[in-house]
Amino acid sequence: MSASRTIALSQLADIAGQANVSSAPARLAAYAIDGHTPSLAVRPGSAEEVAEIVKLAAREKLAVIPSGARTKLGIGRPPRSYDLALDMTRLDRVVAYDPQDLTLSVEAGIPLDRIAAELAAHRQFLPLAVPFADRATAGGTIASGVDSPLRQAYGTARDFVLGMEFVTGDGTAAKSGGRVVKNVSGYDLHKLMIGALGTLGVITRINFRTFPLPRMARTYAAVFRGASAACKFRHASAGSVLRLESLELLAAGGAGSGPLGETAGFPFEGDRWIAVVSVAGNDEVLERSRRELELLARGAGGSSLESFAEISGEGREKAATYIRDYPAAILRHAPSAAIFKISQLPTELEAFAERCKSLAMAWAVMMRGLGPTYLALLMRDVTKESIERLDSDRLGVFLPDERLPTFSLLFAPPEVKRDPNYRDASRRNLALLENLKKAFDPSGVLGPGRMRYEI
Length: 455
Description:
Largest sheet: 8 strands, antiparallel
CATH topology of the largest domain: Vanillyl-alcohol Oxidase, Chain A, domain 3
CATH architecture of the largest domain: 3-Layer(aba) Sandwich
Distance between the termini: 38 Å
Number of domains: 3
Radius of gyration: 23 Å
Oligomer: single chain
Number of helices: 16
Number of strands: 19
């Protein structure tokens, strides 16, 4: 270890305690990102310690990457440098919870399952049905910007995160928003932290609005032959008066995609597209929803509708898990997969779906009823030939349409991320992003190179 790293190790120990600092290679390997392993790792126990650590990093020019349970470190670009892993899992307290006011304040390192248990005791919940929810932390989930199928009914984190406390790249402790809805005022700077991967600030505390748990919920699946009917059903359902908890269109194709159907519990083969819809409410609401959804499915599908039925028990659990854990399910099946997150108009979904059928590589799609589309290209290995095929498929899916969708590379092997074709294009908002980075992190020590980018 260099002299500067030895000095940094001693200073970190003074801040967080010797037991919470490590330079052991075996422990540091757990924080590796795309082949980059830090020289040191530290576990602060308070927001004040976080601020002191970031000040030290800025002073010593140490590149810092914050993390929680490390379930989503694969998101984002490979770091240009990586000296210090900032493990936030010791900041795991419920700071304040007012069930009557439907507000919750937690430290960033608290696991989502602990939040769920705390809220369930008062028949409340957070609509964060996100990938890796059994291990993920609140701060990591918000910083990664992953969305939830429940956005159909409850919106995204931008809608129910009331405020945050965070530490900027110069070690300044800052706060934005409030702890209750009526106290939220001023600029919503905390919304910049959502999806920024810790490149603008280290989140230390989050204030949430909570929601009452639905009394009952049911899930239905409509199986269509072809994307056209499925997209028509999606448009009709999203535009109806029904209050849907979630709505997703699922499909997969190509050699090697078959097991994904078994994982989700649906027959993806034969150009089948499955619409999975969840509704909540009392018996009367649920029965009315079932009738109207079936009518919408028959009206959209005609002879293309193979079936419409409620799914329950094991089938419902398999579908819900596949939808919630979509990236995790894909990566378990194909560890070398490239997963894209795509934003496009609802009117463009059908044309996009048709282009997917021409892909040379095995693929899987999940379209939110309200929100983005996820496309997984299932690379079997990471070779030059595979990356070339991936690039060819990418161009075939995204470039034919004159109105190019906005898409980002969510998960991919490091070799794909480093490919020149996936580097920053000259986007209109690139200068704005660079100015934001300089304002919040003037020394450039927070996750250098990691900022999420669009292609």
